[in-house]
Amino acid sequence: TLNVQIKATAMTDTDVASFKVKGTGNSVENEAEIGVMYEDGAGTNAPTGFIKLDASNGTSYYLWIDNTGDLRVSSTSTHVGGTSGTVVGSQS
């Protein structure tokens, strides 16, 4: 069992606390990341949990739950925490 905890206190705009893994194959390096991001531009006043996944073409996509419970996806990190991006599904 591996228990890893990363904690950031007093986060401000654009701060990220995360766990990231990278892999390289066929001269392509991609990564996956899970963490917490504080992004003022997203219209939220609190850090938001996110998952970042790179597609095989290298494009990064971010997934998060907004304040209304909708799961959202965007290729723009500044959307994390807000209501921009595409709704993937609603949680009840």
Structural description of this entry:
With 92 residues, the chain is mainly β. Helix content is 0%, strand content 47%. It is built from no helices and 6 strands. It has strands at residues 16-25, 28-37, 48-54, 60-65, 70-74, 86-90. The protein has a 6-stranded antiparallel sheet, with no helix packed on it. It is globular. The chain starts with 15 loop residues before the first strand and ends with a strand. The model has no long low-confidence stretch (mean pLDDT 90).
Question: Which terms would index this structure?
Answer:
mainly beta, 92 residues, 6 strands, globular, 6-stranded antiparallel β-sheet
Compact summary:
The chain has 92 residues and is mainly β.
Order of helices and strands: EEEEEE
Strand count: 6
Gross geometry: globular
Spatial ordering of strands, largest sheet: 1-2-3-4-5-6
Summed over residues and divided by their number, the pLDDT gives a mean of 90
Q: Specify the helix fraction band.
A: under 10%
Instruction: Enumerate how many helices there are, as a single number.
Output: 0
As a whole number of angstroms, the C-alpha radius of gyration is 14 Å
Q: Please report which band the strand proportion falls in: under 5%, 5-15%, 15-25%, 25-35%, 35-45% or over 45%.
A: over 45%
Provide the low-confidence segments as ranges. Answer: none
Termini separation: 32 Å
By secondary-structure content and strand pairing, the structural class works out as mainly beta
